[in-house]
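Ticket #4471: structure export looks truncated?
Reporter: QA, pipeline team
Priority: medium

Steps to reproduce: submit the single chain below to the structure queue and open the exported record.
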Amino acid sequence: MDILKNREAPKDGIPQRLPADTVEGAIIGEIRRILRTPETTAQVIAKLDRDDITEAEAIAALQQFPELWAHLFPAEQARILQLLVRRVTVTAEGLIIDLRTDAIAGVMRDMMTPRPLVAAE
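Actual output as written to the record:
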């Protein structure tokens, strides 16, 4: 943005502004990477209510996250990002994305639990 606006680049090399889609793409990529780790799978399975969701369903949901994500409304995607992202820091080396990994199990449970249909009034 500094170059586009003919502003002098910061001396530390850290950009003052980044396009939102660049940051959002990096965050979603990091979430996808974390969801594929064995540690996250174990964490989600440990927090399951076995009456509602089976272990196999949880593993399948973690693997199918990109497809699930693509079908969510933008408002729901934003809500999930707010639950999972603690902070994003821009450095000269890149973005540091601090995720609330302890919230992943709850988010996945919410995404997988069927909700009753409510009639519009």
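Status: closed, not a bug. The export was complete when the record was re-opened. Leaving a note from the reviewer for reference: The mean pLDDT is 77.
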